[in-house]
Sequence to fold (473 residues):
Amino acid sequence: MKGTSKCNFDKKGNDVMKTQIEPFKIKSVEAIPITTKEERIRYLKEAFLNPFYLRSEHITIDLLTDSGTTAMSASQWGNIMQGDEAYAGSKSYYKFEEVVKKITGFKHIIPTHQGRAAERILFSILGGNGKIIPNNTHFDTTRGNIEYSGAVAVDLPTKAGIDPSTVEDFKGNMDIDALQRLIEEVGSERIPLCIITVTNNSGGGQPVSMQNIRETKELLSNYGIPLFLDCCRFAENAYFIKKREKGYQNKSILEIAQEMFSYADGATMSAKKDGMSNTGGFLATNDDSLAEKARVNLIITEGFPTYGGLARRDLEALAVGFEEALDEKYLEYRIGQVAYLGDLLIKAGVPILVPTGGHAVYLNAKLFAPHILPEHFPGQSIACDIYLEGGIRSCEIGSVMFGKKTPDGRHIPPPMELVRMAIPRRVYTKSHIEYVAESVIKVFNRRNELKGMKIIYEAPLLRHFTAKFDYIK
Ligand SMILES: *Cc1c(COP(=O)(O)O)cnc(C)c1O
Fold:
């Protein structure tokens, strides 16, 4: 199953997609706003050319994120009515805990209101000055929480993982040799944990192989360093393993997920992704002393350990959501929908990160707008024009999100300049996807008109959320 398996085209270059139907019917609908070009020009200007400032009522198709934007099922909504809103010992918590334990096998399951709360708790305990925390690629909030604690966040993707054009099955993998070099260089005592993010969100939603998780664990065991999974998209990752990695074709998604977690000592999760819900997360660990510290922190900041800042009905939605995420028919549609958008763009010559990953299509901004230097934010410029064209919101993942500065103020770009079009789960239909492709292709066909940008305001951390921009005249 090497090479082009299930990724857009077969070995002869033929399109392997067949008509794919949404494996659900729609019970409740929500109208989407349709705006005029003049309106969009005004809205974008009022948003300081940052799509994060746009109001959703001005957005036709919102591909800013797949986080918390899932359409919940009738079964989830039904269970929400069963929520046991007890402050302590809620029935709903035990349902949630049972499902998460079944999938992950971890001893302590600590609910949080979303993923970054789990990260904050974890790194406020294990982080701090002098500590170094490696990851295949840190997500922005993970990096933010580590740096906020005083520790250093190190990304160790493979070479293929930072080349948008290399087609490989598991571009999300950790560079294990680089990890070993890092441990030898800084000393294992400075590395309180190592993280693998599945799928590798900032690296293009690319999956991590079982072999890579297992071998990372083996290496870390030699040094006594625990392995955590940032497991927001564990089900999507498990689906890729089933389709692409030898020996997993006949295993269920649940079995594959269980094996993935068996190599880890703990996990943080934003359940707003593969929890198929609008909010929620958890911190999980097998370490009793870490769990105790985490629960103390949780009680001070999030809530009692049987709700962790969530309404108990949210835990009901999650208990059902985790099961639904493991449904192979759903995953086939999910990954297929993302690939479909990728295929439409590839056919029109639009440069995207290949193969398409689990939850999003990433435009390769360096090739899309090569006339704009990284320090002039090509991805941001493209994201703005895609909004102007079709009222579609996407998200820059490049120099705005991850750019750094030298002490004398020069720009250090990250390895890739991307624009992420994340697909919310079960929300948009095939025609919505085709509309997105048509809009992006129109922008691509007039790409020479795209203009570079400059930042006119930025916050000290996670600047992409609130930065304000202007075009370079
Ligand atoms: C979304 C996400 C997070 C943070 O979770 P929130 O629920 O948004 O706080 C952390 N890591 C990864 C890989 C994510 O995708």
User: Anything to note?
Assistant: The longest helix spans residues 328-347. The longest strand covers residues 108-112.
